[in-house]
Amino acid sequence: KRIRDLEDRQTDTEHMIRSMRERMSEMKSNVAMVRYNAFNDSGHGSDLSFSMAILDDARNGAVLTAIHGREETYMYGKPIVAGESTYSLSPEEKQAIEAAIDQLVKTNKR
Questions:
Q1: Per residue in 17-64, pLDDT tens?
Q2: Burial readout 41-68 (b: 16 or more C-beta within 10 A, e: otherwise)
Q3: Is 4 buried (19+), middle (13-18) or exposed (0-12) by CB count in 10 A?
Q4: Cα–Cα dist 109/50, whole Å
Q5: pTM of the complete model
């Protein structure tokens, strides 16, 4: 009976670990940000604009972009599925997505 109880516990533990791994792969844990000066004001200003990609292990998530100007700031969000978007992407957004994917690849090599 004790051996059977231990086997049942081991099976339960294996199921729990498998479930946790599945949930972890769906977490948006691959994040990368690119900062830039959106208006290139002849050296004036700072890199206050940014694009940030937030992806899960299947390369699904979103890219957020904030364009900062002197008078106002605009923020955009675009969905990402399998590392691609149905919306057109700026070079900075593409760079952020690539950096998040690179992070994913490096993490999975460990």
A1: 988 888 776 777 899 999 998 877 655 667 889 999 999 989 999 999
A2: eeeeeeeebbbbbbbbeebbbebbbebb
A3: exposed
A4: 28
A5: 0.76
